[in-house]
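$ ./design --mode recover --in tokens.txt
reading tokens...
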């Protein structure tokens, strides 16, 4: 059988198993071992298994459980409530203030929690009841929560960005720095949209009456709620961008700082510590199993020679190198409707990264384009993760159809943001160059 047919059967089997709901780790790892056995015999199994064991050499992955733990401590301690209180008071005068406050809190929360699921559930529990009480439409109330939660892909520290850096052999610090301004750009686009639409259609997001707005003294006092979370962000990102620490060291500093912050708020107890540790263990364990399955997949994948075939097909795309880049973005979007971000990362990046390097594109910039696509993936049905998560916290009168409709304008804004970042790469590359040097 020709290598082309083997490659076709290999990928068709993989997508079929994923569509049937088989966990990605068993799909990538198990299928690879089965193909290795039938193509090259029992001795080939060692090649695949050694690929899985190779996960231990990636010391950078130590960042993952520490950043997750940092976020879990912030989540379980209720610090998100303090953040929302600050934004709610300061933005009360603008149209759609509660929805804009949700985006603002989500932006800061993304820099602490590094989990879209946690952000969706947290803001769904805190912001949604208040917005619905104020008469906000289902569309604005649920849409802004999901869009804000998805910012966790870009705003550092992002766990998926760490995994991309490992695969692409790029600096995590550069990737973190590259995601800062694109994340702020998208948050700004969301807030502008909410403000303009709420001004034009006051019924969908009623303004807070002047009598209920906080006086200046209360606003200033509320800023104390920003001190600890913003302090942790500046400590972690500042130490990385300044070159004082490596990302691994910064993640340890952030984990310790999160414990101290919760203690300062007088909320540190055994339950919060235990819940945070267990949540971190679960998330990290899932990620590591997926990574091992992906490494096995990569070993067999290279041995098949499939990468060379796909690279050849991609390079033959019309419109030159920009045509290839646009085609890649389209594949990300299509895959995002049926696969999760980690699956897409491990399946596509071994193919795409050599291609974009050969075409002269910056891997950090390309990584940020991938992250923006994954934001869109989390908001697009049928797989959209945020869509399913928000359904678990909304009241019965908000249907799945309402949730699907609520994300349409935010997905369109993400597409606009993606286009802007493609046209103006300096939005991504300026900060990494200033912080770390280089071209």
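writing sequence...
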């Amino acid at each position: 059988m020709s290598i082309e047919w083997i490659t076709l059967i290999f990928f068709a089997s993989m997508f079929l198993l994923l569509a049937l709901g088989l966990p990605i780790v068993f799909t990538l790892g198990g299928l690879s071992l089965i193909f290795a056995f039938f193509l090259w015999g029992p001795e080939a199994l060692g090649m695949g298994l050694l690929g899985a064991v190779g996960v231990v050499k990636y010391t950078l992955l130590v960042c993952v459980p520490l950043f997750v733990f940092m976020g879990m401590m912030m989540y379980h301690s209720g610090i998100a409530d303090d953040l929302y209180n600050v934004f709610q008071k300061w933005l009360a005068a603008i149209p759609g203030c509660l929805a804009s406050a949700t985006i603002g809190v989500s932006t800061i929360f993304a820099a602490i929690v590094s989990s879209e699921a946690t952000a969706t559930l947290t803001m769904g529990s805190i912001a949604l009841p208040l917005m619905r009480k104020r008469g906000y439409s289902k569309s604005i109330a649920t849409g802004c929560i999901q869009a804000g939660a998805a910012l966790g892909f870009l705003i550092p520290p992002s766990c998926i960005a760490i995994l991309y850096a490992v695969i692409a052999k790029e600096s995590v610090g550069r990737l973190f720095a590259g995601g800062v301004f694109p994340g702020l750009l998208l948050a700004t686009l969301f807030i502008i949209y909410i403000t303009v639409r709420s001004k034009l259609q006051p019924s969908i997001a009623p303004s807070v009456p002047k009598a209920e707005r906080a006086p200046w003294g209360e606003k200033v006092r509320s800023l104390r709620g920003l001190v600890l979370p913003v302090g942790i962000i500046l400590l972690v990102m500042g130490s990385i961008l300044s070159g004082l620490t490596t990302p691994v060291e910064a993640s340890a500093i952030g984990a310790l700082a999160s414990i101290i912050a919760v203690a300062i708020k007088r909320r540190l107890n055994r339950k919060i510590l235990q819940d945070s540790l267990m949540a971190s263990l679960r998330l990290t364990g899932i990620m590591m199993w997926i990574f091992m399955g992906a490494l096995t997949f990569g070993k067999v994948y290279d041995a098949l020679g499939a990468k060379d075939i796909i690279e050849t097909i991609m390079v033959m795309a019309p419109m030159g190198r920009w045509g290839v880049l646009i085609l890649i973005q389209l594949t990300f979007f299509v895959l995002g409707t049926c696969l999760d971000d980690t699956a897409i990362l491990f399946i596509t990046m071994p193919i795409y990264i050599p291609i974009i390097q050969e075409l002269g594109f910056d891997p950090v910039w390309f990584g940020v384009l991938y992250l923006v696509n994954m934001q869109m993936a989390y908001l697009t049905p049928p797989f959209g993760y945020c869509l399913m998560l928000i359904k678990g916290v909304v009241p019965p009168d908000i249907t799945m159809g309402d949730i699907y409709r609520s994300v349409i304008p935010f997905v369109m804004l993400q597409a606009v943001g993606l286009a802007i970042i493609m046209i103006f790469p300096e939005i991504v590359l300026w900060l990494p160059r200033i912080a770390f040097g280089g071209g």
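exit 0
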